[in-house]
Write a structure and sequence with these properties.
The chain is mostly beta strands. The protein is built from 5 helices and 26 strands. The longest helix is centred in the N-terminal third of the chain and has 10 residues.
């Protein structure tokens, strides 16, 4: 099993001495010794897929900026151990957040099982308050549904509960608390679950990715999310990461690709893929019959939903994948900034700098100036925050943040190679360029405009530098 950056730890060392005090007060070493080994991850990079060494075979998923939780087999039962605990999560290089998660990460590790598996999950609570876990979308006994007070007693700090049920239905699911969920989910307590079909050949794909949409309100200079925020978040994240901290999805040309996306934010997200069409083949309710699918380039994912998108990656390049709500592809600093388009600020800047020496004007011609490297080096940022737009590509500033990454389609990749191949090397003559009048653009066929139709009005304008006129 290839699990770089994943540590197997003694329970009393996991997450430091502060959390261990809770555990020591309630859980004996004898009890802990009987539980599955605790596995945790510290770094936020995408881990290699977890190929099964025990249990029935399946085609594993790749968790974007995450990993899958190992298990042990015990008399035919697949056993996992989740630890709910405070974690330190890098949102992107230059910013970290004090969140709550599972096994060292937020979101927690993906759980992968096979349809028909009997599953036993031990859940140890190292949070400062009681918790539970709801297995979102699963068919299971009511007492295993994880709604504290309704279907079970809450898991008190330091206690370990056990959930056991049969994974009856193949599909894509989530897990999250149903105990003070406003606080606990706002702090990042969640994870993904995949139940693979019994037949590994059913709905098989070459590369299978999964991630959760989540959001935080972390004021510049602070480290903890504001838990009472309802809609006005300033960090829209994929698996608690924002661009440029979100890893690319690396695939081979002509791979059949699946991207599973779950939404645990407070609003919907239209997820848009460049350069390809896809179909929605699955929801958290199950697989969509082929007769009910249609081609899309954007699909809206509502709160509490999961969608599986599938396509053939037959176009080489670095293709954008992002939420199509424009404010969701920006990072912190984006709120409460007045619109200054067209406002001359030269005199204003000098006056303000007499009072605030580090003041920098922005927005006179648009917000692209925020991505200019010289401007960013001159602009002081509060501690532990990110610029609104950041990230660079081979041609300059990408001017994105938040829910954005790239689908990198390449030839000649190894089957299990997910390493970033670097920028796409475009064939000569295939990059958009400035027209200087010395070369001729490639002619394109186009249907003629029907100028005899009185409902169509044409306005003809000469290029800049000529006298403009109009005609019909």
């Amino acid at each position: 099993m290839n699990t770089p950056n994943i540590n197997r730890r003694d329970f009393f060392k996991l997450a430091g001495a502060a959390g261990a005090g809770i555990a020591l007060s309630s859980v004996s070493k004898v009890t802990l010794a009987a539980l599955p080994e605790i596995v945790s991850a510290e770094k936020a990079n995408t881990q290699a897929p977890l190929h099964p060494e025990t249990g029935r075979p399946f085609n594993p998923v790749v968790t974007l900026n995450g990993w899958s939780l190992p298990w042990r087999m015990n008399n035919g039962v697949k056993e996992f151990h989740l630890v709910a605990e405070p974690v330190l999560r890098e949102i992107a290089p230059g910013m970290v957040a004090q969140l709550w998660g599972y096994n060292g990460q937020s979101p927690g590790p993906t759980i992968e099982v096979v349809e028909g598996d009997r599953v036993r999950i031990f859940v140890t609570n190292r949070l400062p308050e009681k918790t539970s876990i709801h297995w979102h979308g699963q068919r299971l006994p009511n007492g295993m549904d994880g709604v504290s007070g309704l279907t079970q007693p809450a898991i008190l700090p330091g206690k370990t509960f056990v959930y056991e049920f049969v994974a009856k239905r193949a599909g894509t699911f989530m897990y999250h608390p149903h105990a003070d969920e406003m606080t606990q989910m706002a702090m990042g307590l969640m994870g993904s679950w995949v139940t693979h079909p019994k037949d590994p050949k059913f709905m098989a794909v070459d590369r299978d990715f999964i991630f959760l949409l989540n959001a935080y309100d972390i004021e510049p200079g602070s480290y903890k999310p504001k838990i009472n925020t309802m809609l006005d978040f300033n960090l829209w994240t994929w698996n608690s990461r924002v661009f440029p901290g979100i890893d690319p999805l690396v695939v081979r040309k002509n791979d059949k690709v699946r991207i599973r996306v779950g939404n645990l934010t407070m609003t919907n997200h239209p997820i848009h893929l460049h350069g390809h069409e896809f179909t929605v083949t699955g929801t958290d309710g199950g697989w969509v019959p082929p007769s009910a699918r249609w081609p899309e380039v954007t699909t809206d994912i509502a709160v509490g939903q999961m969608r599986a998108l599938e396509f053939v990656a037959d176009e080489l390049g670095d293709w954008a994948l992002h939420c199509h709500k424009s404010h969701h592809t920006m990072n912190a600093m984006g709120h409460d900034v007045p619109t200054m388009l067209g406002v001359k600020q030269d005199d204003l800047v000098n006056k303000i700098r007499n009072l605030v020496p580090d003041y920098m004007s922005m927005g006179e011609t648009g917000m692209s100036e925020m991505s200019d490297m010289a401007a960013m080096m001159d602009m002081p940022l509060p501690e532990n925050t990110l610029p609104m737009m950041t990230g660079t590509g081979q041609y300059g500033a990408i001017e994105m943040g938040g829910m954005f990454t790239t689908l990198k389609v390449r030839e000649n990749l190894a089957r299990n190679d997910y390493k970033d191949p670097g920028p796409y090397q475009h064939p000569p003559g295939t990059v958009a360029r400035e027209y200087t009048g010395t070369d001729k653009p490639t002619p394109a066929s186009a249907a003629p405009v029907d100028v005899t139709n009185p409902a169509i009005e044409l306005k003809v304008r000469k290029p800049a530098g000529h006298d403009a006129h109009s005609g019909h």
